[in-house]
């Protein structure tokens, strides 16, 4: 079975980064739409000001990341939101994410932190804007 040389796979990294950003943002967005719009299902808990604020950040930030617009600052802000959510809502129950149900918050935190450093990838409005400034 032929294998792809690693240098060929590395050429795909900007595209894989875009796919990661799009799928993570789309999934993240639904957490906010559940809180604010009861879609795709109603949120399980009553909204307090902290959850309402998180819902707004999840919807607005999720949409911006989905489009790849202002990706680095948005991803950095959302990474902090997820770190805050992990420590406020999950870590007090157990040290282990699998036991405290904080795996999603932890993964979103580090995915968004990576996007804030690496950028949105080639399929983004940010990349289009940067290219139009150069060319």
TrEMBL record:
Membrane protein topology class: Multi-pass membrane protein
Entry keyword set: Cell membrane, Membrane, Transmembrane, Transmembrane helix
Predominant place of localization: membrane
Keyword Cell membrane assigned: yes
Subcellular location: Cell membrane
Spans through the membrane: 12-30, 50-70, 77-99, 105-125
Keyword flag Cell membrane: yes
Source organism, top-level taxon: Bacteria
InterPro entries: DoxX, DoxX-like_oxidoreductase
Family, similarity comment: Belongs to the DoxX family.
Stated name of the protein: DoxX family protein
Lineage: Bacteria, Pseudomonadati, Pseudomonadota, Gammaproteobacteria, Oceanospirillales
């Amino acid at each position: 079975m032929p294998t792809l040389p690693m240098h060929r796979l590395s050429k795909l990294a900007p595209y894989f980064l875009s796919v990661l950003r799009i799928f993570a943002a789309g999934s993240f967005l639904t957490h906010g739409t559940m809180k604010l719009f009861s879609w795709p299902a109603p949120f399980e808990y009553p909204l307090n000001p902290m959850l309402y604020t998180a819902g707004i950040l999840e919807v607005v930030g999720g949409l911006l990341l989905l489009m790849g617009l202002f990706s680095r600052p948005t991803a950095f802000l959302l990474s902090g939101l997820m770190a805050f959510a992990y420590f406020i809502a999950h870590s007090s129950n157990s040290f282990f994410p699998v036991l405290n149900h904080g795996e999603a918050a932890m993964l979103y935190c580090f995915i968004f932190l990576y996007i804030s450093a690496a950028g949105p990838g080639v399929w983004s409005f940010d990349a289009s804007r940067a290219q139009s400034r150069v060319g």
